[in-house]
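Obj: model holo form, ligand = L3UKIRZJ.
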Amino acid sequence: MHIEVVANIGEARSEEFLHKTVVVVDVLRATSTIITALSNGSRGIVPVETVVKAKELYREGDLLGGERFCKKIPGFDFGNSPLEYTREAVQDRRIILTTTNGTRGIQKALKASHVLAGALMNGRACADAAIQLGRDTVILCAGTQDVFSLEDGLCAGLIMHEIIQKLGAEHVQANDFGMAMHSAYLTCKHRLLDHLLSCSNGRKMKKSGFLADIILCAQANISESVPILENDHMVLLPR
Ligand SMILES: O=C(O)[C@H](CS(=O)(=O)O)OP(=O)(O)O
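Output (holo structure tokens):
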């Protein structure tokens, strides 16, 4: 399998995603939130780029979720904290979600054969899904406003590590950035929370009062759920 890790959305070339699986990674916090909401029984998440589009797609019974620059959008039901998306709040509900980077990353990946949502919490499950889908794989780190974010790179390294463990190093070729992220993950894997707290997004989120989100999002392989895009909805990949 060929794996290409892309450092941020600004570097993504969508025409190169044709016939591939793209795993969009936004550890803090959009893809961690999507995984949590679907695990808690949401019947589907519609990721959109703009607030206007979210309001346009809204139908009675839906929930609106999202933020801009860490702040909940006025009039929306939720912000972008995975802890808000409890079973009680989201079971059987469709959610229209717009976030600063993550949902933009998903939109950018639409030309791919398969679009998955990955985070540290489902890294291993995502690697298994990518293997099963049988295509070359792009791991698209969402980053923050077209700048690389370390937490996404570490997650790309985790997914690569799991794929290499399963397929064997001789069957995996990665681009140079992917190789660097794999090494970074191996160096940091026993202290992921410390790294998430000290990287730039982690510091910003802690300052904004989201320490509990960082603690949750830093936990590797706690979820078997893999969101996949079907038409315009993210739903759970059947296992
Ligand atoms: O709310 C979040 O988690 C971030 C906000 S920001 O872009 O880091 O200011 O959005 P996300 O789309 O999840 O990266």
